[in-house]
């Protein structure tokens, strides 16, 4: 089970790493043109902040265990990412846009949090 837990953690980390980098380095217009139409409802500075939080969450899922330091941050990172994705789900619902991806990410990140806090602590 722990191998699958690490596979899920790696997948979530890669998704948020890519998403965070794109929000930090791309212009709002480039994100909009790539299909992220919701960016028109988010202030550009907030969008960069969201990208930085996604990057921090992605790194927080992996680095503490790799470095064997502050491993208690892993479930905090996954919990924070789950909350962010619940907010993203609400945004997409409000805009009547597809919301399956953020909802699935929220559920997976939430499951990682629960498992890391209970049965499989880091």
Automatic annotation (TrEMBL):
The keyword Transferase does not apply. It comes from the Bacteria. Pfam families: DoxX_2 (PF13564). It is found in: Membrane. The chain crosses the membrane at residues 46-66, 73-93, 99-118. This is DoxX-like family protein. The keyword Acetylation does not apply. InterPro entries: DoxX (IPR032808).
């Amino acid at each position: 089970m722990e191998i699958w837990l690490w596979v899920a953690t790696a997948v979530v980390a890669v998704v948020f790493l890519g998403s965070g980098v794109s929000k930090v380095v791309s212009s709002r217009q480039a994100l909009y043109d790539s299909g992220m139409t919701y960016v028109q409802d988010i202030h550009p500075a907030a969008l960069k902040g969201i990208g930085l939080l996604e990057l921090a969450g992605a790194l927080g899922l992996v680095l503490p265990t790799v470095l064997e330091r502050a491993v208690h941050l892993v479930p905090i990172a996954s919990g924070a990412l789950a909350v962010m994705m619940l907010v993203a789900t609400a945004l997409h619902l409000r805009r009547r846009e597809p919301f399956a991806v953020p909802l699935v990410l929220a559920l997976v990140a939430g499951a990682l949090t629960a498992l890391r806090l209970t049965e499989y602590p880091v």
